[in-house]
Amino acid sequence: MTVQGACDPRFATVAEEFERNLTERGEVGASVCVVVDGETVVDLWGGDAAPGIPWLHDTIGHVWSCTKGATALCAHMLASRGELDLDAPVVRHWPEYGARGKDGTLVRHLLTHQAGLPALREPLPSGAFYDWKLMADRLAGEEPFWEPGTRHGYHALTFGFLVGEVVRRVSGRSLGAFFREEVAEPLGLDFWLGLPEEQEGRVAPTILAEPPARLPSFYATAFADPASIPALLLGNDGGYMTTPGESDTRTAHAAEFGAVGAVTNARGLAGMYRPLSLGGGGLVAEEQLAIMSPAQSASSVDAVLLVPTRFSLGFMKAVDNRHLPAADSEGALLTETAFGHAGMGGSVGFCDPPARLAFGYTMNRQGTGLGINPRGQALVDAVYRSLGHRRARGGLWYRPT
User: First CA to last CA across the chain, in angstroms?
Assistant: First the structure.
């Protein structure tokens, strides 16, 4: 398959791994972008966006939970400006949210997946995720599954409405409008929370992963126990996940869905994290960057995903799950200073400020795990090797002194 773009010779191994993804690891179409010290050192794309249609320079695709990084960034921008206190109760900005034992929920709990609202109990109507007010009202009236702040569990689909509604209440703009006006347009990013119709023709449709021989614990629990949180998360979604092809529709792409709805490419992901890799870059103050990075919630058993996870305030942190059975073994083999977000199937964007690194990888063929898939991890590993980093006993990366 043809690979196009540019790659600095210092990062030739990234290009080699990208080619191997396409020729040996089942990649169909993909893009990768690496920015170091503010300069783009890798910008590659290749394969097919759809049968018979090549992946082009401006091909974009659905990046699923990489969206959460964009949503969290919006909240941190408001916090950096002094307009949002992350340690304040949510009800300061969203009074209705205090119902049914949630009055003590802090804004930080929404960002760290500690809010206790990873799913809704009562059935949602068809198309619910396209109705922002409906979702905000339903979440405000829902009883939490655990006392907010006492444990964490991945809010896979509700995160965007929870954090996004706070952004809306504080800024007076919808989440998609805030991101477009404050991030995407100033940075010149091809990155959309609410894709305009005229851009639809550039979207590479998602190719679902082949059913695995063994399901990750999250999916196995969802199918085995209809009353479980994983089952409610996957099954009570207004058709977004349960209707085949729904997430690839024009309606889905147009929605401002702040948990999993963004459409972009590797260049867009790396471009969003580029200012953060340089100390804030005008998006947030350096002090806020220090708040964004450290892990704030971690557990050996995430209450939803049922595997070890770690989060900072809105972003995934490095986690090594390779000791687990194969179906649960995907994690995020980064450095401890890196933060960002992976998307379902394996796309990922992150920054590593001490390394002055921003990274993006997107693809159309999904993997089966819950973290960075082996194709994306191979690219991440090649980047860190090119920067002179080492792996601690084959696991997380570190910069030798």
Answer: 40
Its pTM stands at: 0.98
**Looking at residue 400, what is its pLDDT?**
93
| Signed CA dihedral, 277, 275, 169, 121: sign only | negative
65 is catalytic: yes
Burial 292-321 (b: 16+ CB within 10 A, else e): bbebbbebeebbbbbbbbbbbbbbbbbbbb
Distance separating alpha carbons of residues 38 and 281, to the nearest angstrom:
10
Catalytic residue among 65, 80, 247, 386: 65
* Sign, CA torsion 325/326/330/336: positive
Query: What pLDDT is recorded for position 1?
Result: 65
Q: CA 44 → CA 146, 351, 357, distances in Å?
A: 44, 18, 17
Six-digit token string for 361: 């990888």
Give me the average pLDDT of each 10-residue run along the chain (401 residues).
Answer: 93 98 97 98 98 97 98 98 98 98 98 98 97 98 98 98 98 98 98 98 96 93 97 96 95 98 98 98 97 97 98 98 95 98 97 98 94 97 98 93 88
CB atoms within 10 A of CB 350: 30
What's the confidence (pLDDT) of residue 361? Answer: 98
How far apart CA 34 and CA 107 sit, in angstroms, is 32
Helix-strand-coil split of the chain, %, nearest 5: 40, 20, 45
Query: What is the Cα–Cα distance from 86 to 205, expressed in whole angstroms?
Result: 37
Tell me the C-alpha distance between 279 and 276, whole Å: 5
CA-to-CA separations, 176 to 181, 182, 251, 283, 346, in angstroms, rounded? 9, 10, 15, 16, 23
Whole-number Cα distances in Å, 212 to 65, 156, 206, 220, 231: 21, 21, 17, 11, 18
Tokens of 265: 């490419």
